[in-house]
Design brief:
Oligomer: heterodimer
Mean pLDDT of chain A: 90
Number of helices of chain A: 7
Order of helices and strands of chain B: HHHHHH
Mean pLDDT of chain B: 88
Radius of gyration of chain B: 20 Å
Structural class of chain A: mainly alpha
Strand content of chain A: under 5%
Largest interface: A-B, 106 and 88 residues
Number of domains of chain B: 2
Number of domains of chain A: 1
Distance between the termini of chain B: 35 Å
Helix content of chain B: over 70%
Shape of chain A: globular
Chain lengths: 175, 153
């Protein structure tokens, strides 16, 4: 196993860590760009599969990077990728949580909050668009994506039921 | 996150409901998964840096090994026709979860103004033009914050 993929994982993911406002979904487009388009570590549909696993499994979705690391460089890759994606944001959170408590209600605080929300929303919608294009290669697949999104928006059903049902539909050979 | 709230506020009473909301709103603003950030903040509040580290490790260790286990299974059996067929369905539904999350956030109170254009521009720049995220954010995020500051005047 060469060292280069490990260094790449560490570099790419620690950078992502600092811009992942809202979690993994925000940086999904950039992860896709790095993992699929730039390094060619896996195909778009493999990437979509790993992300589906991360969503179905317990724990934050960001753990998709553990799977990517595993796929690229085994256990070392998984550890490096996970540490890289967690450490910078955790250190930042630790530091900011101490500063933030000292300035309740400051005007710049509200402006930072109001300014970052629309950008985060745009990133999440972009993530949804790109992962849909990676995952769906047929009309039934697009229909599953659309129905899942609609059901999640309209009801409070647990997402695992939807993933399970979609798995059965796939197993039946309809997708 | 609802589980984290129940544990922290209702069962252990480590935080009041107001403290939880305050910590959560800060953590949503910072990069990283919200639930991880909440753990770091709560750990830091009670035991400083070591508390933050302990909270992080407690939250992440089990899921890390579980997902590697699932990943190994997928690697082993993913090529079987039945498994890859199911995964075509599961991936499609997982994509739907992301789309729903985006729409839920888009319905947020903070977006009902001209600020929503920043969301539109971000979507076009990232999803359609495929601009590199870092470059895009260095331009768009400061502009958006300045616009918010200007609107607040």
């Amino acid at each position: 196993m060469s060292e280069e993929p490990l260094a790449q994982l560490a570099m790419d993911f620690s950078l992502l860590s600092l811009i992942a406002v809202g979690g993994a979904i925000t940086v999904l487009p950039e992860m896709h760009r790095s993992v699929v388009e730039m390094h060619g570590w896996m195909s778009g549909s493999e990437f979509a599969d790993l992300f589906a696993l991360a969503q179905a499994a317990p724990g934050p979705n960001i753990l998709v990077v553990s799977l990517i690391g595993w796929k690229v460089a085994g256990l070392a890759g998984a550890v490096v990728a996970t540490a890289a994606v967690c450490a910078p944001s955790c250190v930042l959170t630790f530091a900011v949580s101490r500063i933030w408590q000292r300035f309740p209600g400051a005007r710049w605080r509200t402006a930072v909050e109001d300014g970052l929300v629309p950008v985060t929303v745009g990133l999440m919608l972009a993530g949804g668009y790109l992962i849909t294009r990676s995952a769906d290669h047929s009309w039934p697949a697009f229909a599953i994506t659309a129905v899942t999104a609609a059901v999640v928006l309209a009801t409070r059903i647990h997402p695992l039921w939807l993933l399970g049902a979609a798995g059965l539909i796939g197993l039946a050979g309809w997708v | 996150m609802p589980f984290a709230r129940r544990m922290l506020v209702e069962e252990r009473r480590w935080l009041s409901a107001e403290e939880f909301t305050e910590i959560l709103s800060l953590c949503q603003l910072l990069p990283g998964p919200n639930v991880v950030n909440v753990a770091v903040c709560v750990g830091a509040r009670y035991r400083g840096a070591w508390g933050a580290l302990a909270a992080f490790a407690g939250l992440m260790t089990a899921p890390f090994f579980i997902i590697l286990g699932l990943g190994a299974l997928h690697g082993q059996y993913g090529h079987l026709p039945a498994v890859s067929a199911s995964f075509r369905g599961i991936s499609a539904a997982a994509a739907g979860l992301v789309v729903a999350m985006g729409f839920k956030m888009a319905a947020s109170r903070r977006l009902r103004s001209a600020m929503a254009w920043f969301a539109v521009v971000t979507f076009i720049g990232i999803a359609l033009m495929r601009l590199p995220l870092v470059v895009f954010l260095l331009g768009a995020a400061p502009l958006s914050v300045v616009a918010a500051l200007w609107r607040a005047k």
